Amino acid sequence: MPDAQTIGKEHVRGRSLKGEVVVTRRARFNAAHRLHNPDKPESWNREQYGRCNNANWHGHNYTVEVSVIGEPDPETGYVIDLHYLKKLVNDVIVEKCDHKNLNLDVDFLEGIIPSTENLAVAFWRQLEPHVKQGRLYSVRLRETESNIVEFRG
Ligand code: NI
């Protein structure tokens, strides 16, 4: 491939710098859940999960941050089109989880204990096949202001 300088000025302008860049899209959703392992006795669940085992659910205001890494495309200057990433996070996570019960309503969470850790891994698996520009780098999920998990698959 010829060096960008040799093809013409418009291509020189379109050169990108070498180096990987992390691009992040943040989204929010509200959902209910219950931490409960059906394979364990009620007493185990109560002791393990405390208030999070409440039989009639409890809710969180979640924040999810999806990061994609790669070198900026020389033609666009983008690692990934943020309009695409916004729509992807919205379609794959927010539309499926917002105002839902994570134990009952979300197909890809069926049979999964909806801890923050498990949710981050499940979200990664939903997102990963659709990231074609750059590559998925991390899924960070904030369950409360102070409790944050990050998964890098
Ligand atoms: Ni909870």
Tertiary shape? elongated
CATH fold descriptor of the domain at 20-33 and 59-151: Tetrahydropterin Synthase, Chain A
What integer is the average pLDDT?
92
Q: What separation lies between the terminal Cα atoms?
A: 33 Å
Overall number of strands: 5
Going by helix content, strand content and strand pairing, the class is alpha+beta
CATH class type of the domain at 20-33 and 59-151: Alpha Beta
CATH architecture grouping of the domain at 20-33 and 59-151: 2-Layer Sandwich
Biggest sheet architecture: 5 strands, mixed
Instruction: Name the helix and strand elements from N-terminus to C-terminus, one letter apiece.
Output: HHEHEHEHEE
- Fraction of helical residues: 25-40%
Explain how this protein is built:
The model has no long low-confidence stretch (mean pLDDT 92). The protein has helices spanning 4-7, 9-13, 42-49, 82-97, 116-127, and strands spanning 21-33, 58-70, 100-101, 135-142, 148-151. With 153 residues, it is of the alpha+beta class. It has a 5-stranded mixed beta sheet with strand order 3-1-2-4-5. The chain has a domain at 20-33 and 59-151: 6-pyruvoyl tetrahydropterin synthase/QueD (Tetrahydropterin Synthase, Chain A, 2-Layer Sandwich). It contains 5 helices and 5 strands, in the order H-H-E-H-E-H-E-H-E-E. 19% of the residues are buried. It binds nickel (II) ion. Nickel (II) ion is lined by residues 33, 52, 58, 60.
Task: Kindly list the characteristics that best describe this protein.
elongated; 153 residues; Tetrahydropterin Synthase, Chain A; 5 helices; binds nickel (II) ion; 5-stranded mixed sheet; alpha+beta; 5 strands
